[in-house]
Amino acid sequence: MDKIVTNSTIMISTGIFLLIATGLFLYNKTILLGTTLLALYMTFIVFIHMYKGKPYEVAILIVMATILASYMRKPKIFHQRQEL
Q: Where are the beta strands (DSSP E) in 1-71?
């Protein structure tokens, strides 16, 4: 807890945010929103690791795996719709 933030309120709210984002990711109708929230959160974590000079490769892999998992579950949401 002392690595980035020492305030327990921020840690609890981050945990609640992650639970909501994971729930949205697991529900088929909101998978795109959940993927976006999780990817943005992990991208923020990547930037924090880069700023602190710590290894960030695993965090990048988690971002890519989240997007890949979303694509594997529902590939149609990643394709553009063509108008007739």
A: none
